[in-house]
Each structure stands twice: as structure tokens, then as C-alpha cells.
Specification:
- InterPro entries: DUF2232.
- Keywords: Membrane, Transmembrane, Transmembrane helix.
- With 208 residues, the chain is an all-alpha fold.
- Helices cover 79% and strands 0% of the residues.
- It has a single domain, classed as Arp2/3 complex 21 kDa subunit ARPC3.
- The longest helix has 33 residues.
Length: 208
């Protein structure tokens, strides 16, 4: 089979379609939040553009999506899409096209997602004029105090333990999210003719 020309008009049409699909998903989820149901689809159109075409198509899909969101929802939401969902989509497309195992793609996507969460805290703190990280630490401190009292302990958790718990919670939540993204991609993209590497055997056995 001869290689697809780099300027094939189909690439431009599909890239525009995938970008508009991502923007629509982001828009619907903002006004009608359905938890992780739509969020786990955010990176997939960009990753699909990479799998079907190349890195240029994936970057263009991300940029066009960001431009659409900037027009429809403002630059703030556009930036929140790019970091981390757009970057995760491009990265996963790159890794899946090169048959990276799930251990590698999950780890890298989790790192990008966790750094993206840190960026979101800083970005929203600047916009709102409040330190959201401090607010989150206060909430976590109250939760840990309640948890320790539940088990009969009256000790106060130290600041280092609270910070460690907060960071671990961010990493774990991002790992769980990226695992959902991988599972959906494994099921959906295979049916679209662009399969990703197979999951580890233990995951296949759980889903069997």
C-alpha cells in the first residue's frame, strides 16, 4: 500500500471534524456535566488524528479545537482544554502509534495529567485572586481530622503528611482517569480501524 500523501485533503477534513467533535464534547460537558462520562473522551479525537494521519494532524486538531473553544467559551476554557487534555491526546497518539505498552503510556499520561492539574490550580488561583491550593489543603485537613477521630485518634496530622496526601490523591485520580481513557480507546478505536496496543493480560481477564 502506497503511503498517504502528506497534503491529502482527507487529512484536513478529518482533522476539522475531529476538532469540532472535541469542542462539542467539551461544550456539552461544561453545561451538562456528566462526571467522567464525557471527560474520558476529551483526548481521543486528537489521538485518533495522530493514529490515522500523523503528528501534524494531531497538533492541528488540538489547535483548531482550542480556537473553537476560545470563540465559543472564551480563552480561559480554551487553555483549560489544551492543558492537559490536548497535550495528553497528542502524546497518547504518538505513543500508541509506536506500540508503547500500557505501562509506558499510562505512566506518561498520568504525569502530564498531574502536571496539568497543578497548572489548573495555579491558573485558576490567578484568575480568582485566591490560592485554591491552600483552600484544598484546608478541606483535606478537615477530612483527615474527621478520619482520625473516626478511628479514635485525637492527634492532628502534620503539614507534610497533608501535602503528601493531597499530591498522592491528585496522582491517583489522574491515573484512574487515564486508565478509563485507555479502556475507552481500546474498545472504541479498534472498531474505527485504528487499534491501540492491547492491555495487560490481567485487565483483559477482568473484562472477559
Amino acid at each position: 500500500m502506497s503511503p498517504v500523501p502528506s497534503k491529502d485533503p482527507r487529512a484536513m477534513v478529518e482533522t476539522a471534524f475531529l476538532a469540532s467533535t472535541t469542542a462539542m464534547l467539551f461544550l456539552i460537558n461544561y453545561y451538562f456535566p456528566l462526571g467522567p462520562l464525557l471527560r474520558m473522551l476529551f483526548p481521543l479525537p486528537t489521538a485518533l488524528a495522530y493514529l490515522r494521519w500523523n503528528g501534524r494532524a494531531a497538533w492541528m486538531a488540538m489547535i483548531v479545537t482550542a480556537l473553537l473553544l476560545a470563540i465559543l467559551m472564551g480563552p480561559t476554557r480554551s487553555i483549560q482544554y489544551i492543558i492537559p487534555h490536548g497535550l495528553v491526546g497528542v502524546t497518547l497518539g504518538y505513543l500508541w502509534k509506536r506500540d508503547f505498552p500500557w505501562s509506558g503510556s499510562l505512566s506518561i499520561a498520568t504525569i502530564i495529567g498531574s502536571l496539568g492539574t497543578a497548572f489548573q490550580f495555579a491558573f485558576l488561583s490567578i484568575l480568582l485572586g485566591e490560592n485554591l491550593w491552600t483552600y484544598s489543603i484546608v478541606q483535606i485537613t478537615g477530612f483527615l481530622n474527621w478520619l482520625m477521630q473516626l478511628f479514635g485518634s485525637l492527634e492532628q496530622p502534620d503539614f507534610a503528611a497533608i501535602q503528601t496526601f493531597a499530591i498522592a490523591a491528585i496522582i491517583f485520580s489522574n491515573f484512574a482517569y487515564q486508565l478509563l481513557v485507555h479502556l475507552v480507546a481500546w474498545i472504541v478505536l479498534d472498531r474505527l480501524g485504528n487499534p491501540i496496543p492491547a492491555p495487560p493480560k490481567w485487565i483483559e481477564s477482568l473484562l472477559a
